[in-house]
Amino acid sequence: MNRSNYISLAAAFIILGLLQVTVLKNLILGNYSSCFIYILPLLLIPLEVSAIALMATGFLYGISIDTFYDTPGIHAASAVLVMYLRPGLIRLLTPGGGYDAGTQISAAELGWGWVLSYFIPLIFIHHVALFFIEAGNLGMFWVTLGKATMSSIFTLVVSLIILYIRMPQKGSRL
Amino acid sequence: MYSLFQFLYRNRAFLTFLFLEVISFWLVLNDRSYLGAKFFNSSNRLAANVLSVSSNVSDYFSLGKVNAQLAEENRQLHEMLLNQPPKGIDPIRIDSVSIDSSNYIYEMLAAKVINNSTRRVNNYLTINKGSDDGIVPGMGVVGPQGIVGKVKYSSKHFSSVISLLHTEFLISTAVKRNQVYGTLRWTSGDALYADLQYVPRHVNLQVGDTIVTSGFNTIFPEGYQAGTISEFTISDDATFYTVKVKLATDFYSLRYVYVVKNLLAEEKDSLEQVTIPDYE
Hints:
Distance between the termini of chain A: 18 Å
Number of strands of chain B: 12
Strand content of chain B: 25-35%
Largest sheet of chain A: 2 strands, antiparallel
Oligomer: heterodimer
Number of helices of chain A: 7
Order of helices and strands of chain A: HEEHHHHHH
Strand order of the largest sheet of chain B: 1-2-5-4-3-12
Largest sheet of chain B: 6 strands, antiparallel, barrel
Distance between the termini of chain B: 57 Å
Structural class of chain B: alpha+beta
Strand content of chain A: under 5%
Shape of chain B: globular
């Protein structure tokens, strides 16, 4: 992971965060499905970053999103949860030969299968935590779970599109 | 001692996790906390400036609707002026010069909505007026069509407002036709409808009855439009009606609001504070 990767990651945090709080906040498909794309840069933090730094980043980023949503703590709690589970899931998904030093989380290096099995559980857990903490009780369990599921699909699709667009094209690399 | 440190070090990730989650949940549960009020809400200067830039852009898409709303509001005001009963023969009474603003009970302040949510369980708005304009938490907010909410926090130039679409925001209201009191409360879901609670069964209700604020609180002026009854039912063993109210305010197209300052609020509240304990 070199310096320019970190800069583009920082840019992703800012751009996707702003996109989240200005545009996606007001975009809800069919009254059920919202997109929480701000979680994507958190999932793309390089492998070598320590667990504590991951959670601290998740917390600070989550609380910033909360500030715009007027929901102190909700996004922070879900982001910290995802960041806590992340290293374990990555260990679980270790490919046959292990991770090479400096491996980046991308479809080009790890394949779409890996990306899917990494994104789906984490995005789903994040959204379930988010919607249930927001609801504050289990009263409307199925409605809340439905919202979380529909939103997870929305977020997943947008994340995959962004990953696909950002993927270096074959042959274009010098 | 050494093994204690070793234990802490080995579980440092889990302990950090617990620590951050405890902070988060503390913020979630204490939504009136000092930290929440001071930093983590949309009246925070940075957040509000970003939101206000984004609303400046999206404003252009709703100009037509805003104009129509303002025209409708003007129509109502003109109608009220025309239908005002003549104030006797004394011409001095209706001379506009003699209207003494020191008799005003309410002051209104126009503000622009720069952020508004309608689809969550508890919704908030952000408006572009703050403590520098004299806004303090607790003031009522009304829109061109009806009541909107109540100021929760205010920073220098912005305020964060609890929307009527908040499940814990109860408003004392009355049925305009027969002055029966009830509590208006939104119970999440559809942003167009709320429930009117605690209307006893002996009351005669009709679909289309207007619900107005009751004036028992000091937040809203008495008699301000809240909505109309769209349907009501009562089961055989229930004490209260189940009433569905179509809200007067269209929260989807809300762009400008008025903050209501009740100049007598302090007097009324402190009087009630003094009186009520005497009965207990």
